[in-house]
């Protein structure tokens, strides 16, 4: 397996006149395989952007090492920089340029022809917006244009910082489809996010970051499985008789109640679901298996807040 990125014991401290030293990145190490969809997931201020910008060569670390496609990102090597794309914030577009002009400007910057610019616009579904001013795009369209600009020179590796930050759920899902396709073409994609759902939906592996540290790295499913947490089955309260509740407890299930709901924590969800169906106690049924939120809670002792 070839590595697209290797990060070793990275550390970056900012000195703030008021707050003093802020350790933004505190000994972070991880690697990303070629072709992988990799996420850095963490709450606000975790150090995600700083880590990403160091990898991109936009910031230098105080200590530690980074290799991108086998090379250090500093000092800048134009040959290396051509091999990756960095999604700029949509707000950094020139507001008086039309969509087509904006992507052509990027294409020219990279010495890429207009045909490739048009194909990239098509790729993100913006061909019919080529003559629209960038300032008139919706949030989702602007995000897709910023991805097109980062892709126009056909890079092997794409970096995205909070790509779906301001988007509504539908626009976010459209963007996820675009990102999945980009990764399916064989490109490595690295993104930062504070949306658990986004990390779960897109990433092969996720680095969970908090207070500058990488707490764990694995696939979302493996991280959740490692918790070995019971499945929580919830139904509306008042549907189970005392005898039925006792039967569940005798089988080792834990019962609790909250907000008019009966919560059954079990190691044997199949049996419990069969029992509930037999007892016709399925009103407001929901089944919760451990997810990244539970992983974060287990790793930090804090609830996840988006
Ligand atoms: N240039 C800077 N000067 C001083 N402090 C900084 C600077 N850049 C980042 N920080 C601080 O470093 C810490 C990590 O910031 P960073 O932006 O990397 O986190 P993040 O996980 O990307 O958060 P967010 O999702 O809010 O962008 C924060 O406490 C932030 O305030």
From TrEMBL:
One of its GO terms (biological process) is response to antibiotic. This is ABC transporter ATP-binding protein. It is found in: Cell membrane. Belongs to the ABC transporter superfamily. Pfam families: ABC_tran. GO terms for cellular component: plasma membrane. It is a peripheral membrane protein. InterPro entries: AAA+_ATPase, ABC_transporter-like_ATP-bd, ABC_transporter-like_CS, ABC_transporter_ATP-binding, P-loop_NTPase.
């Amino acid at each position: 397996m070839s590595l697209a990125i290797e990060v070793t014991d990275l550390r970056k401290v900012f000195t703030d006149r008021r707050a003093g030293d802020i350790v933004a990145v505190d000994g972070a190490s991880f690697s990303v395989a070629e072709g992988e969809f990799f996420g850095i997931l963490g709450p606000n201020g975790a150090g995600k952007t700083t880590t990403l910008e160091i990898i991109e060569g936009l910031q230098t670390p105080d200590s530690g090492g980074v290799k991108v496609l086998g090379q250090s990102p500093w000092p800048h090597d134009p040959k290396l920089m051509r091999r990756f794309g960095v999604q700029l914030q949509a707000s950094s577009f020139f507001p008086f340029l039309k969509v087509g002009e904006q992507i052509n400007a990027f294409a020219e910057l990279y010495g890429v022809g207009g045909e490739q610019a048009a194909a990239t616009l098509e790729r993100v579904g913006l061909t019919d917006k080529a003559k629209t001013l960038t300032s008139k795009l919706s949030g989702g369209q602007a995000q897709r244009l910023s991805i097109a600009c980062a892709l126009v020179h056909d890079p092997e590796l794409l970096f995205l910082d909070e790509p779906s930050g301001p988007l509504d759920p539908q626009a976010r899902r459209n963007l996820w489809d675009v990102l999945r396709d980009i990764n399916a073409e064989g490109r490595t994609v690295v993104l930062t996010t504070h949306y658990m759902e986004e990390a779960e939906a897109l990433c092969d592996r996720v680095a969970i970051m908090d207070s500058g540290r990488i707490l764990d790295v694995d696939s979302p499913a493996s991280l959740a499985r490692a918790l070995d947490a019971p499945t929580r089955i919830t139904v509306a309260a008042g549907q189970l008789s005392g005898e039925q509740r006792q039967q569940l407890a005798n089988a080792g299930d834990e019962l609790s109640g909250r907000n008019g709901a009966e919560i059954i924590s079990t190691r044997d969800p199949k049996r419990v679901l069969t029992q509930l169906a037999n007892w016709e106690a399925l009103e407001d049924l929901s089944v919760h298996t451990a997810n990244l939120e539970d992983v974060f809670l287990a790793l930090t002792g804090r609830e996840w807040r988006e």
